[in-house]
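Notebook entry, structure prediction.
Reason for the run: the old model in the group folder had no record of what sequence produced it. Starting over properly, with the input documented here first.
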Amino acid sequence: MVIFEKDIAVDMGTCETLVYEQGSGIVVREPTVIAVDKFSGKMLKMGNEAEKMLGRTPANIVPVNPIQEGVISDYDLAALMLRELISGVTSFSFFKPCMLMCVPSSITGVQERAVIDAAIEAGARKVYLQEMAVATAVGAGIDLSKPDGHLIVDIGGGTTEVAMVSGGGVVACESIKTAGGTFDDSIVKFIRSKYNLLIGTRTAEDLKKSIGCVVQRKDMSIEEVRGRDLATGLPKSVKITSNELIDAFVDPVNAILDSIHRVLEITPPDLVGDLDANGILLSGGGSLIYGIEKVVERSTGIRTAVVDDPISCTAYGAGKLLSALDEMQDGMMNFSRRRMLRG
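New structure, fully documented this time:
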């Protein structure tokens, strides 16, 4: 029996990679990290298994993130990881699938080529590129056939992308390096400065997820954090309150707010006016920080909400777009950055 291919959508982000299979939904959800032997260059583990090794391995085993700031930084490892992830999905298919890859709106031509080549090497028959902001808007249920303005703020792991989407394309956008990883680094610096305690980025990320906030919580949360005392070099633990993290997050939050205001300044006024009705949508893992939508709304005066399932929204939107690949190829849909390559 011949099993025909199912098209695939991939959201390969700085921190996490999601693979959506047509008709099946999200079938792969793995951290975008690879454990590599630095002497041989051989991949040892990837995804969840590689993430568990972070900070707990010999010096010759190093973690590598093949995606930095939303684009491929290590082509060979990105292609290898993508091939491993896709092989599990297409192992029973006789034909190679078409693949829709989500990319930042600010991607360059060279970076586009790297994404296309990596997808072809991973086993794609044809590769389409789609702006993440458009995929996120589709995943949030926005009808992009209408020329209405929708502001999407995607706070990912390595970058925050602010994009005004209208009529199926991106009208104005900006990408900044302030994102989820920046919040983690801010926690590390804050605890080091205030308590003379050094913690790892994984501990900081856990703290961000558990009690991180940018406005005061109704019930203040407290978390015990363990690390190394910088004065003695010995283990030490301190108790951190959620309200303390508000101070730690001031700089990254202000950077994101500044980016939103810059995009609004370069957006046509008619589209800005649409935001009175449509509001601002936040997505990405960083949008889960408690109160961030309230801070954005207070700063802009525009109603702001977090999309349903902000981590998976882009992948779901890309999955919905798989049914429109033929229209994208025929030029019937007004995607501002559609690309196709025959393998």
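Summary: The chain is about 35% helix and 30% strand.
The old model has been moved to the deprecated folder.
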